[in-house]
Amino acid sequence: MRIDYNHRIFKSVQNTPNGEVNGDTTFYYHQVNDRVWANYSGGGIEIGTLIAKVDAEDNLEMLYQHLNQNGEFMTGKCHSTPEILADGRIRLHEVWQWTSGDFSQGESIVEEVKNVTN
Questions:
Q1: Residue from 87, 114, 108, 117 nearest 17 by CA
Q2: Fewer CB within 10 Å, N- or C-terminus of the chain?
Q3: Element (H, E) at 90
Q4: What's the rounded Cα separation, in Å, for the pair 83 and 97?
């Protein structure tokens, strides 16, 4: 099954303590062919962007960067594995690592938020 990530909105529902994204962080995804990008903000994030490639199983290999509420630039990489929920929304299971700061690793889950047009 091919997932179209274009115009999907995600919110964080779970993150390890060393992550900066939380339930107040919103991601706005876009896609053209196998390229995905998103803007995100909220919670501890002032402004962030990510770029990703979609593989044949709809997994995302991404790089991300953001400016946090402390005025620090943070960067990282992430592998996201999609799960289709019973109601048709997408849940992304993420394994990530900072490429700045302490270079620690973590895991998070983001879920699609149904908007008025979905």
A1: 108
A2: N
A3: strand 90-98
A4: 21
Residue 41 Cα distances to 34, 50, 85, angstroms: 24, 11, 24
**Quick check: 97 and 77 in contact, CB under 8 A?**
yes
Give CA angle at 88 (109, 32), nearest 5°.
75
Tokens of 115: 């908007």
Q: Are 48 and 40 in contact (CB under 8 A)?
A: yes
- Report mean pLDDT in 10-residue bins for the chain, 118 residues: 92 96 97 97 97 97 97 98 96 98 97 73
Q: Is residue 50 within 8 Å of residue 66, measured between CB atoms? A: no
Q: Is 41 exposed, middle or buried (0-12, 13-18, 19+ CB in 10 A)?
A: middle
CATH no. of 9-113: 2.40.128.30
Q: Which of 8, 81, 18 is nearest to 40 (CA)?
A: 8
